[in-house]
């Protein structure tokens, strides 16, 4: 069976010291799972090879004959500017780091230095290349309209432009192994996005989801990394964790903003090194798994407050999707309404009810703190109450009215703040008129809905409008 090769495309090692090359290859395979390396002991073959073979990065010993290291580096930088070159030099080059960096090398290491530093630079260069590749793919994708894999997004109902751009972004980054952070208010569809990323990645492994909320460090480590027999009371046999179950696939960690600080350290190690210790074991395990994270909290604020590690924060943000709340994409409401009417009717074994035309308008006036989950619940509730004829708007009205009047975040704080900033207040008559106009604008001219928003009856609204 063909082994999984990493990285893909390979690393090119240009060096004529065969023993050193072999040692380095062993170390890279053991310490970083790097098993795709080409070796050339003749520097004149380097440039030619890159003409027909894609290469991730070049490790160049500048003393490899017959060309000078400076010449090879110059040609590589000129002809293949996207391929980073790391100089790995003999001790005769000690103290010449700035010489090589000024000439465009990505990094400089002496052969007899610790491997750890070299490994860190290689990892950095590989990430750099991957991000560059994704940026190019992203740019190309933005220029094209359609989606390559519409099936991956079939569960996400939308016609909003921002959402479609997010789908395109996902297609561009789906093949990458970098983490993705999905943010957005509760109920906007973060889990559905995680599923779409997994599907678009065409990964062979499974999608495994875990919720980090309420997990202490022991529960987190046990869930993710598993344990060995005797690790704690009751651990009567070895048990694999979710990371292993997701190997070759995707691990989706929801509510990442709630992760305790001890677990944050372990997660960072998993992300950076792909390594972890099962509970009670001192044997490192290594897996390849794509990691997705979701939260409805502002991680930047948590980072500043010292509740979320800075290094982990920056690692998570490599790719970031922010899903807009439903109130910012009201054009989706009619589509979602139809979708959930069909879903609810099917699950309740009823005929799909016809909604009144003004239902979508009523819904678009509401701020939906619970987003799509809230809309779904409203529709399921209305369909379960429905007997025959047109769908009644009553249950929708009641929910909206209750939430609008009682919600602490119904926008009244903003309104008061705006009022305080006004130099001159409007007269009561002017304020009356402005409010009525705004309600009618939001309700697309529907008097009944506008009146409900203002807390008066439709005849009262009509009377007041005649007076102004
Ligand atoms: N665009 C959409 N089309 C169809 N259904 C959707 C869409 N977005 C969300 N939903 C549905 O809304 C509900 C909530 O979605 P989901 O669980 O993905 O939200 P979330 O952002 O992960 O929420 P939370 O932050 O509370 O975990 C689910 O039933 C989901 O199927």
Automatic annotation (TrEMBL):
<dbReference type="InterPro" id="IPR011006">
    <property type="entry name" value="CheY-like_superfamily"/>
</dbReference>
<keyword id="KW-0805">Transcription regulation</keyword>
<dbReference type="InterPro" id="IPR025662">
    <property type="entry name" value="Sigma_54_int_dom_ATP-bd_1"/>
</dbReference>
<dbReference type="InterPro" id="IPR001789">
    <property type="entry name" value="Sig_transdc_resp-reg_receiver"/>
</dbReference>
<dbReference type="InterPro" id="IPR002197">
    <property type="entry name" value="HTH_Fis"/>
</dbReference>
<dbReference type="InterPro" id="IPR025943">
    <property type="entry name" value="Sigma_54_int_dom_ATP-bd_2"/>
</dbReference>
<dbReference type="Pfam" id="PF02954">
    <property type="entry name" value="HTH_8"/>
</dbReference>
<feature type="domain" description="Sigma-54 factor interaction">
    <location>
        <begin position="156"/>
        <end position="384"/>
    </location>
</feature>
<feature type="domain" description="Response regulatory">
    <location>
        <begin position="10"/>
        <end position="126"/>
    </location>
</feature>
<dbReference type="InterPro" id="IPR027417">
    <property type="entry name" value="P-loop_NTPase"/>
</dbReference>
<dbReference type="Pfam" id="PF25601">
    <property type="entry name" value="AAA_lid_14"/>
</dbReference>
<dbReference type="InterPro" id="IPR058031">
    <property type="entry name" value="AAA_lid_NorR"/>
</dbReference>
<keyword id="KW-0238">DNA-binding</keyword>
<dbReference type="Pfam" id="PF00072">
    <property type="entry name" value="Response_reg"/>
</dbReference>
<dbReference type="InterPro" id="IPR002078">
    <property type="entry name" value="Sigma_54_int"/>
</dbReference>
<keyword id="KW-0804">Transcription</keyword>
<keyword id="KW-0067">ATP-binding</keyword>
<keyword id="KW-0597">Phosphoprotein</keyword>
<dbReference type="InterPro" id="IPR003593">
    <property type="entry name" value="AAA+_ATPase"/>
</dbReference>
<protein>
    <submittedName>
        <fullName>Sigma-54 dependent transcriptional regulator</fullName>
    </submittedName>
</protein>
<feature type="modified residue" description="4-aspartylphosphate">
    <location>
        <position position="61"/>
    </location>
</feature>
<dbReference type="InterPro" id="IPR025944">
    <property type="entry name" value="Sigma_54_int_dom_CS"/>
</dbReference>
<keyword id="KW-0547">Nucleotide-binding</keyword>
<dbReference type="Pfam" id="PF00158">
    <property type="entry name" value="Sigma54_activat"/>
</dbReference>
């Amino acid at each position: 069976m063909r082994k999984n090769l990493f990285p893909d495309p390979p690393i090119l090692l240009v060096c004529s010291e065969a023993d050193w090359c072999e040692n380095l290859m062993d170390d890279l395979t053991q310490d970083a799972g790097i098993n795709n390396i080409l070796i050339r002991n003749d520097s004149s073959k380097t440039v030619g090879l890159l003409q027909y073979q894609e290469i991730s990065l070049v490790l160049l010993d500048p003393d490899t004959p017959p060309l000078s290291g400076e010449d090879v580096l110059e040609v590589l930088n000129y002809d293949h500017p996207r391929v980073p070159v790391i100089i790995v030099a003999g001790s005769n080059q000690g103290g010449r780091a700035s010489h090589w960096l000024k000439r465009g090398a990505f990094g400089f290491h002496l052969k007899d230095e610790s491997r750890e530093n070299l490994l860190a630079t290689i990892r950095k260069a590989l990430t750099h290349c991957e991000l560059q590749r994704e940026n190019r793919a992203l740019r190309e994708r933005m220029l094209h309209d359609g989606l390559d894999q519409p099936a991956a997004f079939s569960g996400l109902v939308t016609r909003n432009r921002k959402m479609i751009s997010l789908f395109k972004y996902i297609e561009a980054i789906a093949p990458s192994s970098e983490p993705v952070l999905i943010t957005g208010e509760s109920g906007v569809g973060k889990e559905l996005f995680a599923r779409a990323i997994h599907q678009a990645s065409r990964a062979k492994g499974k999608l495994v989801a875990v919720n980090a909320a309420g997990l202490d460090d022991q529960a987190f480590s046990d869930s993710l990394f598993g344990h060995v027999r005797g690790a704690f009371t009751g651990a009567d046999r070895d048990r694999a964790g979710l990371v292993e179950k997701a190997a070759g696939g995707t691990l989706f960690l929801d509510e990442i903003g709630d992760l305790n600080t001890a677990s944050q350290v372990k997660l960072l190690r998993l992300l950076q090194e792909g390594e972890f210790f099962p509970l009670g074991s001192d044997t490192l395990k290594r897996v390849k798994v794509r990691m997705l994270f979701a939260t409805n909290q502002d991680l930047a604020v948590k980072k500043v407050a010292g509740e979320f590690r800075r290094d982990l924060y920056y690692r998570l943000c490599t790719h970031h999707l922010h899903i807009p709340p439903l109130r910012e994409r009201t054009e989706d409401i009619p589509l979602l309404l139809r979708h959930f009417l069909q879903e609810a009717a099917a699950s309740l074994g009823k005929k799909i009810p016809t909604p009144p035309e003004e239902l979508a308008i009523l819904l678009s006036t509401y701020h939906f703190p619970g987003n799509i989950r809230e809309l779904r619940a409203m529709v399921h509730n209305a369909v379960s109450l429905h007997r025959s004829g047109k769908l009644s708007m009553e249950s929708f009205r009641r929910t909206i009215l209750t939430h609008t009047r009682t919600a602490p975040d119904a926008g009244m704080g903003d309104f008061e703040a705006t009022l305080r900033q006004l130099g001159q207040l409007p007269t009561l008559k002017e304020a009356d008129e402005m409010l009525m106009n705004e309600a009618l604008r939001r309700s697309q001219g529907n008097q009944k809905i506008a009146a409900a928003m203002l807390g008066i009856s439709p005849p009262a609204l009509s009377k007041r409008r005649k007076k102004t």
